[in-house]
Amino acid sequence: MEIHVVTGDITRRSVDAIVNAANSSLLGGGGVDGAIHRAAGPELLEACRALRAGAYRDGLAVGQAVATEGFALPARWVIHTVGPNAHAGQTDPGLLEAAFRNSLDMAVSLGAASVAFPAISAGVYGWEPATVAEIAVRTIRKHPGTGIHTVEFVLFNDAVTRVFRSALDAGD
Description:
Strand order of the largest sheet: 1-6-5-2-4-3
Shape: globular
InterPro entries: Macro_dom, Macro_dom-like
Protein name: O-acetyl-ADP-ribose deacetylase
Number of helices: 5
Strand content: 15-25%
Largest sheet: 6 strands, mixed
Distance between the termini: 13 Å
Domain Macro: 1-172
Low-confidence stretches: none
Structural class: alpha/beta
Helix content: 25-40%
Pfam families: Macro
């Protein structure tokens, strides 16, 4: 499995699946979540409302993942995961690891060969980017990733990109 680190807009990546750092409501929000909902179009919100009307009536739990179509995105699928919110006391690294691992598990079950991840929980959820990068890289590397050929970390600025590159290089 190849792992790449890039600065850019995750909504423009030509991969099979992009991971959405969603909130538990699955109904859109700010940051990456809002950008993905805007770029995918109103059908994504309708698909998320359908999830909430069915198996996810209480929302998606921290660390879990669920998929929808990508609609107007270049990606075929959006994998929604809820990262832990450090400001709400969710500081267990296992929760963050679960968000990355369960997203990859979902990608495997969809048959995705390429997946793009944001820096889950590194934004408004208050986790230090270096901690997120270390957990993300470690989790991706130890995942069997059956059928996944490429994982991209698509990051919103150069500073976070440097932190992820450093984490990736540290494991080489």
